[in-house]
Amino acid sequence: MSSLSTELAKRQSVSNTRNELGLCRPITVIFARGTTEPGNVGTLTGPPFFNALDAVLGTQNVGVQGVPYPASIAGYLAGGDAGGSTNLGTLTQQAASQCPNTQIVLSGYSQGAQLVHNGAAQLPAAVASRVAAVVLFGDPFNGRAFPNIEASKVKTFCFSADLICKDTIVVDAYHLAYSVDAIPAAQFVTSKVSL
Question: Annotated catalytic residue: which of 81, 85, 117, 175?
Fold first, then answer.
């Protein structure tokens, strides 16, 4: 198997951990997983989204960095883990400084979406301006604007019957099904970046 085939096979998996910030690919996705999910990108929404991005933008063009944080229920109830929110902001600033030509995409699922809101609010204006797109899945803060990122750069996927999107604590089957939005989410990102 060639090295490209090996890399593609590895990336088309459902790996729950991704640490590719240092690769400085044309597009860097900073992703925060949902509550109780394993690894640093989870399994329910992150990997299908990354596979869709790889399919439309090319594996060689997309680097994914998961956000390390406990992903506990207590963090969700607090409006998003404070340390994880800071980590997301720090990783975003690192992407901007270490990879000056990368286009940054912020994304999160469930509590991870809370972290995107919180972490993005901590970004200096110069770094926030580097964010090409924000993609949120099952967002408990559904409809809340980002103070430092243009609304046209933000896409939220929330089923109307998903109670988490109504900022409740009830997880239903709808909340666990955002993998179906992987392709539309990747298409949105494609409309906001250039290769």
Answer: 175
